[in-house]
């Protein structure tokens, strides 16, 4: 079967810097941090991390109540980002209802906030009598995908992959394969997550959350840095509009990048700890899918969350595949780890880096951990032409993902 | 509570829950066509009223006959008066 080429024609972001790709890029290029103190975390017994990167300044009431009532914060983020991606892509009413535009958007879990509110109330007297009709629509695993589809009147396929930090990379990869196979012409895809103490606490109890920079939030997380101390949780959504090249060319859409390779591997060695060999395998399979060798990659946008195990394993894996030739940076130093949203937020920013000819350095990387020295770190803005890059994401649960994007050429 | 106080609490609670414009809420307003509510909203409407007036009405047969905001006013006023009579 002849596979179709797949391109990106629209992008939307709701990030710890606010709404919009330009807002995100401006903050990243200026070296800003989206991490702030969150006083409410101090009220939780056993919580040592007190920082997070939260979404500021969006207006949920842009979404009509009829649609918003079934949304928690993560679906609001996804819907606003999807709206912006569709607008940039120039989609019109006619595209939404024909069954050829689908949605592939996932989150780590359904809304933890609504789940907490429900069980807090339920446990007071074991009663369902106060349960609102829309609770389920907040907490179902496909909440973001379904809410985006309903709000926008989309009638194509619905896919809601869930693999924590790999979620949105998988969402894009699987959507790309659907379009390549001719099953859909367009897919709005990515991920979203809302901040909740459960997420921060999950990393904290595993000694993988940042706890030493509670009074200097802008100084953490510190990917690859000798003085890093763990993840800073974030929230938001990154949504990409994928489209077959045939479709994009036929309607004269602006093409931002082409997806040329994708791979995902399971890491059965540990459900929690990353394995350099398995990460390297994932990147090699993505290269094979793209039919290029390591020399065909100009930049690696790392997963690098600032955990000791993760940063070292990814450094070793990148070094084993690419040596010390290819520049590497992580964007989590700027905006923390937005979990299911991190892949597409960082993918969108990397596409913009390619379009603008500048590589953004890893924020807070001051002294490279000697165990991460085997790769070429970007520590200052690097102005150069980028034609092809690889984006990594690795998840608790042992789910690796790598995707390769290229500057579009006919 | 006087009838007017009951009506005010109903209208305030419904306007808040469903983000309605109070000026558009007339006793003759139909819940579905004019106030824009739907079947999911009606589930929540019952919870809103139960919370505001501290009674249980989900199983009341009379709810099924409610069509307008004025029907809600009349239903709640009748229910409250019954509760007062029963002490």
Radius of gyration based on Cα positions of chain B:
12 Å
From N to C, what is the helix and strand string of chain A?
Answer: EEHEEHHHEHHHEHEHEHEHEHEHHEEEEE
Fill in the CATH topology of the largest domain in chain A. Peroxisomal Thiolase, Chain A, domain 1
Give the CATH class of chain B.
Mainly Alpha
The description of the largest β-sheet of chain B is: none
- Determine the mean pLDDT of chain B: 95
- Residue stretches of chain A low in confidence (pLDDT < 50, at least 5 long) are none
**Number of DSSP strand runs of chain A:** 16
Q: Please report the distance between the alpha carbons of the first and last residues of chain B.
A: 14 Å
* Beta-strand residue fraction of chain B: under 5%
Helix/strand class of chain B: mainly alpha
The CATH homologous superfamily name of chain B equals ACP-like
Can you describe this structure?
The complex is a heterodimer of chains A (410) and B (87). Chain A is 34% helix and 19% strand. Chain A is of the alpha/beta class and 410 residues long. Chain A has two domains: 6-250, Thiolase/Chalcone synthase (Peroxisomal Thiolase, Chain A, domain 1, 3-Layer(aba) Sandwich); 261-406, Peroxisomal Thiolase, Chain A, domain 1 (3-Layer(aba) Sandwich), CATH 3.40.47.10. In chain A, the strands form three sheets. In chain A, strands 1, 2, 5, 6, 7, 8, 9, 10, 11, 13, 15 and 16 form a twelve-stranded mixed beta sheet that branches. Chain A has a two-stranded antiparallel sheet with strand order 3-4. In chain A, strands 12-14 form a two-stranded antiparallel ribbon. In chain A, α3 crosses α7 and α11 crosses α12 (308-322). The model of chain A has no long low-confidence stretch (mean pLDDT 97). Chain B has a single domain (3-86), classed as Orthogonal Bundle (Non-ribosomal Peptide Synthetase Peptidyl Carrier Protein, Chain A), CATH 1.10.1200.10. Helix content of chain B is 56%, strand content 0%. The longest helix of chain B is centred in the last third of the chain and has 18 residues, at 69-86. Chain B starts with a helix and ends with a helix. The chains are: A alpha/beta (410), B mainly alpha (87). Chains A and B meet through loops of A and α2 of B.
């Amino acid at each position: 079967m002849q596979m179709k080429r797949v391109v990106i024609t629209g992008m939307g972001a709701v990030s710890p810097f606010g709404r919009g790709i330009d807002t995100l890029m401006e903050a990243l290029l200026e070296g800003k941090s989206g991490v702030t103190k969150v006083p409410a975390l101090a009220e939780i017994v056993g919580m040592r991390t007190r920082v997070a990167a939260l979404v500021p300044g969006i207006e949920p009431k842009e979404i009509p109540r009829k649609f918003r009532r079934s949304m928690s914060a993560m679906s609001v983020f996804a819907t606003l980002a999807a709206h912006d991606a569709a607008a940039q892509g120039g989609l019109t009413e006619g595209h939404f209802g024909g069954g050829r535009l689908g949605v592939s958007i996932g989150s780590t879990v359904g809304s933890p906030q609504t789940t907490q509110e429900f069980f807090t109330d339920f446990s007071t007297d074991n009663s369902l009598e106060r349960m609102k009709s829309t609770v389920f629509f907040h907490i179902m695993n496909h909440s973001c995908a379904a809410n985006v589809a309903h709000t926008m009147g989309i009638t194509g396929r619905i896919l809601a992959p869930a693999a924590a930090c790999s979620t949105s990379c998988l969402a894009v990869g699987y959507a790309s394969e659907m379009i390549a196979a001719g099953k859909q012409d367009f897919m709005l895809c990515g991920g979203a997550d809302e901040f909740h103490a459960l997420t921060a606490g999950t990393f904290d109890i595993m000694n993988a959350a940042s706890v030493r920079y509670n009074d200097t939030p802008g100084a953490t997380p510190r990917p690859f840095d000798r003085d890093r101390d763990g993840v800073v949780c974030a929230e938001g959504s990154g949504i990409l509009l994928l489209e077959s090249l045939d479709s994009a060319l036929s309607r004269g859409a602006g093409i931002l990048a082409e997806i040329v390779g994708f791979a995902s591997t399971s890491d059965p060695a540990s459900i929690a700890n990353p394995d350099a060999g398995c990460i390297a395998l994932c990147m090699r399979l993505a290269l094979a899918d793209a039919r290029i060798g390591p020399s065909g990659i100009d930049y690696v946008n790392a997963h690098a969350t600032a955990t000791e195990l993760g940063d070292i394993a990814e450094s070793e894996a990148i070094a084993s595949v690419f040596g010390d030739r290819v520049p590497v940076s992580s964007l989590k130093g700027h905006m923390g780890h937005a979990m299911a949203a991190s892949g597409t937020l960082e993918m969108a920013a990397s596409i913009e880096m390619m379009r603008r000819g500048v590589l953004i350095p890893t924020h807070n990387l001051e002294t490279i951990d000697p165990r991460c020295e085997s790769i070429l770190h970007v520590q200052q803005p690097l102005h150069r032409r980028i034609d092809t890059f690889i984006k990594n994401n690795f998840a608790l649960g042992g789910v690796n993902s790598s995707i390769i994007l290229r500057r579009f050429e006919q | 509570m006087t009838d007017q106080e009951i009506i005010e609490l109903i209208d305030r609670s419904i306007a808040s829950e469903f983000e309605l414009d109070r000026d558009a809420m007339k006793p003759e307003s139909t819940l579905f066509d004019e106030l824009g509510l739907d079947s999911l909203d009606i589930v929540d409407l019952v919870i809103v009223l139960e919370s505001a007036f501290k009674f249980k009405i989900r199983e009341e047969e009379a709810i099924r006959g409610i069509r307008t905001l004025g029907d809600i006013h009349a239903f709640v006023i009748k229910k409250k008066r019954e509760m007062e009579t029963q002490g």
